[in-house]
């Protein structure tokens, strides 16, 4: 390996060892690893083709993959070899693997789920492609300027992305706009604007390197590189106009997740990557099989939320306009290929596009949507409309064109049936199914938490990594003193490492024996970072009032980005930073309470924070968090959860046991009832002197003396339209936090509860989730088991 690295350094990067930078060493190592992936990757592709396996196509606007190097190393089983080789070359191994930029091609949960699914599909040996967009700029970088969020462009592609293979030969022309002509019965779309989608392939090899799939990301290029005539005239701007316009499509990730998003460019991005993906898989099918009617036997297309919902009309368009199928047959055939995952009930995140915009950008698709709508209404009179109030409703479109629709946790699926798709569920009672989310144990325990990983492997061997339910065997160790001590030791070493990092990056010294209480996720009102902060201020007050009490020392850690246009979320960030500044400077609570908010939370930062957490904050308003996946990562790494009965928290609590989970707050149905009570938030504030005091301090500018009015908007919101019931759940949350304080004082007992969490989380592996999709939705299987069956 050492020689291979030197060879790559020299012949692929053109450097010799004396002149190589950390980045050069990292690239050379990555290229050596990539070589090792290629054989299994190509071999897998060939096996899928030979066996005519059904392939899964996971269409997602986002793949939040983060860094890949450590995944690649450990999936290939090369941890020791890579370290030895790099050290033998006199280089710092950790520095080299940490040099890789974090590929942030997603916003949050939806994108990270897609990345975990790619890992599980490869580990299970299910032939699959992930299809998405190769954004030039991923999620913006966050910094704080006087406590307020500032955004700057992310630039991961300013250096070569070593894992990918550019495929200049994989190109599809994607049209926009124009008109539709008719010749006899046959429609032809004449777009007036074209871009080329070019594929870039990243191999995704599963655990132990037995199977490799492809993540194919599309980049938009102009059809003609530039206009020579304008160039010769000296009009350089005009000469590169078409190039600039085309490239705009894959230029940047939209930084909104569960917030509103209605821009024309976004619709173009959605169509761009969906159409390229559908054309790509159709070409593959026609080459391999040739019978268009056999498509559903070979193709399972999963739509990750409604972003690729245009896949339905696009598939129908190709079947009807290019392959000559009748409309009704085309719709049925397309439906048998398609399935749709819903990731949120928040009305503002359910996509709708004005019909006028649609007509301008995708005129033929709008006609087809009308046909789909008409077919649905003819078969099921009174069915909810896809076209409504002048909008195209992408949720209804995705539902109607899918043979299965799934929610992402038991509670969420139940609410999908009862709320957003109640009527469609009545009409199609078997279409909605549940697939509770999961996380890959490779990255979220084996990779990010070596201390705990090694302890578990000492006990169980290493087969748990691809069979996570084996962790249940650790339950027997809950009263084993020496094991519990080792478990505590692993957590403590992670906390020490995190403290060092926080001290370097935030300049705040932490006590590793304090309770590390962590809330990391997008900043959103429904996730209630604000409630966590109000509780922090209340605790600070009480510590100051009663300094002699035996307080449990706490470190409150926040991390997360706010969508740039989401004003309230940005105010929450500002308030957290304001409170942190005052509290951290207070000698009266020194050593007892600290607040840190490291900027630019991303996957890499999560990998640092999660293994070091004692308490996991999962405190969304019940009924609002579809599932959550961070909640699973924390529990797996031995943090206790403080949480509401929301999303997958419900199932986590069932698995780890209610005695090992700090539950508080209103239930989803109580939330609905409470909202109907007139003046509910004022009533809640009135009933809580503790909360009143905190709100009063913030209102008076206690934390923003230079601008005492700064947080009036937030306080006013809590009094008058506290849609997410921060005020109603505050007392119950505060009391539960104090209960956690008491439990934490008995560190042995805490550790044994934490162990029960780790030991009970096997079910939350994304391997289990993917097996569920394969069984209930895709009817897809690993070729290995398919062969075994036929034998
Ligand atoms: C998220 C949900 O908010 C989260 O609860 C869930 O765990 C995750 O998807 C994966 O299923 N939703 C998004 O990230 C999102 O962007 C809008 O939803 C479409």
Measure the end-to-end span: 39 Å
Bound molecules: N-[ethoxy(oxo)acetyl]-beta-D-glucopyranosylamine
Widest sheet: strand ordering: 7-10-11-4-1-12-13-17-18
CATH fold annotation of the largest domain = Rossmann fold
Please write the CATH class name of the largest domain. Alpha Beta
- The CATH architecture term of the largest domain is 3-Layer(aba) Sandwich
Protein name: Alpha-1,4 glucan phosphorylase
EC number: 2.4.1.1
Pfam family, one: Phosphorylase
Family: Belongs to the glycogen phosphorylase family.
Written description of the protein model:
- With about 800 residues, the protein is an alpha/beta fold.
- It folds into 3 domains: about 1-50 and about 70-100, no CATH class; about 50-65 and about 100-435 and about 770-790, Glycogen Phosphorylase B (Rossmann fold, 3-Layer(aba) Sandwich), CATH 3.40.50; about 460-765, Rossmann fold, CATH 3.40.50.2000.
- It has 34 helices and 24 strands.
- The chain has a 9-stranded mixed sheet with strand order 7-10-11-4-1-12-13-17-18, sandwiched between helices. The protein has a 6-stranded parallel sheet with strand order 21-20-19-22-23-24, with helices on both faces. A 3-stranded antiparallel sheet has the order 14-16-15.
- The radius of gyration is 27 Å and the shape is globular.
- Bound molecules: N-[ethoxy(oxo)acetyl]-beta-D-glucopyranosylamine.
- N-[ethoxy(oxo)acetyl]-beta-D-glucopyranosylamine binds next to helix 6.
Features:
34 helices, Rossmann fold, disordered C terminus, 3 domains, binds N-[ethoxy(oxo)acetyl]-beta-D-glucopyranosylamine, nine-stranded mixed β-sheet
């Amino acid at each position: 390996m050492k020689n291979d690295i030197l060879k790559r350094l020299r012949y692929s990067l053109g450097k010799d060892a004396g002149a190589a930078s950390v980045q050069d060493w990292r690239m050379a190592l990555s290229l050596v690893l990539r070589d090792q992936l290629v054989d299994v990757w190509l071999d897998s592709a060939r096996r899928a083709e030979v066996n005519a396996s059904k392939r899964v196509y996971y269409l997602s606007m986002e793949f939040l993959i983060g860094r890949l190097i450590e995944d690649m190393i450990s999936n290939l089983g090369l941890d020791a070899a890579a370290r030895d080789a790099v050290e033998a070359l006199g280089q710092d191994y950790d520095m080299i693997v940490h040099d890789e930029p974090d590929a942030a091609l997603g916003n949050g949960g939806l994108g990270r789920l897609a990345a975990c699914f790619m890992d599980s599909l490869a580990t299970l040996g299910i032939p699959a492609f992930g299809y998405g967009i190769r954004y030039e700029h991923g999620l913006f970088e966050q910094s704080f300027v006087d406590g307020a969020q500032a955004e700057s462009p992310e630039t991961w592609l300013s250096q070569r992305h070593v894992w990918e293979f550019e495929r200049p030969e994989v190109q599809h022309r994607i049209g926009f706009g124009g008109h539709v002509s008719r010749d006899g019965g046959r429609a032809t779309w004449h777009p007036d604007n074209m871009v080329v989608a070019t594929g870039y392939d990243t191999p995704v090899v599963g655990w132990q390197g037995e199977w490799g799939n492809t993540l194919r990301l599309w980049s938009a290029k102009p059809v003609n590189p530039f206009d020579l005539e304008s160039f010769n005239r000296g009009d350089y701007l005009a000469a590169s106009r078409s190039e600039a316009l085309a490239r705009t499509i894959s230029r940047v990730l939209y930084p909104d997740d569960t917030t509103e998003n209605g821009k024309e460019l976004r619709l173009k991005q959605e169509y761009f990557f969906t159409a390229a993906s559908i054309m790509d898989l159709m070409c593959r099918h026609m080459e391999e099989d040739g019978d268009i009617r056999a498509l559903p036997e070979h193709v399972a297309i999963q739509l990750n939320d409604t972003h690729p919902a245009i896949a339905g009309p696009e598939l129908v368009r190709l079947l009807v306009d290019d392959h000559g199928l009748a409309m009704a047959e085309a719709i049925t055939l397309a439906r048998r290929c398609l399935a749709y995952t819903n990731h949120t009930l928040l009305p503002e995140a359910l996509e709708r596009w004005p019909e006028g915009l649609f007509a301008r950008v995708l005129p033929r698709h709008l006609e087809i949507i009308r046909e789909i709508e008409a077919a649905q209404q003819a078969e099921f009179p009174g069915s909810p409309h896809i076209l409504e109030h002048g909008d195209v409703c992408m949720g209804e479109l995705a539902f109607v064109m899918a043979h299965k629709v799934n929610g992402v946790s038991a509670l969420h699926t139940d609410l999908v049936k009862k709320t957003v798709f109640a009527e469609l569920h009545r009409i199609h009672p078997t279409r909605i199914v549940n697939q509770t989310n999961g996380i890959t144990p490779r990255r979220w325990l084996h990779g990010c938490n070596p201390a705990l990983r090694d302890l578990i492997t000492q006990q169980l061997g290493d087969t748990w990594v691809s069979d996570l339910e084996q962790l249940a065997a650790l339950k027997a160790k809950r009263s084993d003193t020496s094991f519990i001590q080792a478990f505590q030791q692993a957590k403590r070493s992670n906390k020490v490492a995190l403290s060092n990092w926080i001290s370097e990056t935030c300049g705040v010294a932490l006590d590793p024996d304090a309770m590390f209480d962590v809330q990391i996720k997008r900043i959103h009102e429904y996730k209630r970072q604000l409630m966590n902060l109000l509780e922090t201020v209340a605790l600070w007050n009480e510590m100051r009032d009663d300094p002699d009490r035996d307080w449990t020392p706490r470190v409150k850690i926040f991390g997360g980005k706010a969508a740039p246009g989401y004003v309230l979320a940005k105010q929450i960030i500002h308030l957290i930073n304001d409170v942190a500044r005052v509290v951290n400077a207070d000698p009266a609570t020194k050593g007892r309470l600290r607040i840190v908010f490291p900027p630019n939370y991303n996957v890499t930062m999560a990998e640092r924070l999660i293994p070091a957490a004692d308490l996991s904050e999962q405190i969304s308003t019940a009924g609002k968090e579809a599932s959550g996946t961070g909640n699973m990562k924390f529990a797996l790494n031995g943090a206790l959860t403080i949480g509401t009965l929301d999303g997958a928290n419900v199932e986590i609590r069932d698995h780890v046991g209610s005695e090992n989970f700090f539950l508080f707050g209103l239930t989803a149905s109580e939330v609905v009832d409470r909202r109907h009570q007139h003046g509910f938030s004022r009533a809640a504030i009135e009933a809580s002197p503790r909360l009143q005091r905190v709100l009063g301090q913030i209102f008076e500018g206690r934390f923003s003396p230079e601008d005492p009015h700064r947080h009036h908007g937030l306080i006013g919101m809590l009094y008058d339209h506290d849609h997410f019931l921060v005020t109603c759940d505050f007392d119950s949350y505060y009391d539960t936090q104090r209960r956690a304080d008491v439990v934490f004082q008995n560190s042995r007992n805490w550790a044994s509860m934490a162990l029960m969490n780790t030991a009970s989380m096997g079910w939350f592996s994304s391997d289990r989730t993917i097996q569920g999709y394969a069984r209930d939705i895709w009817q897809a299987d690993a070729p290995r088991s398919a062969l075994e069956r036929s034998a």
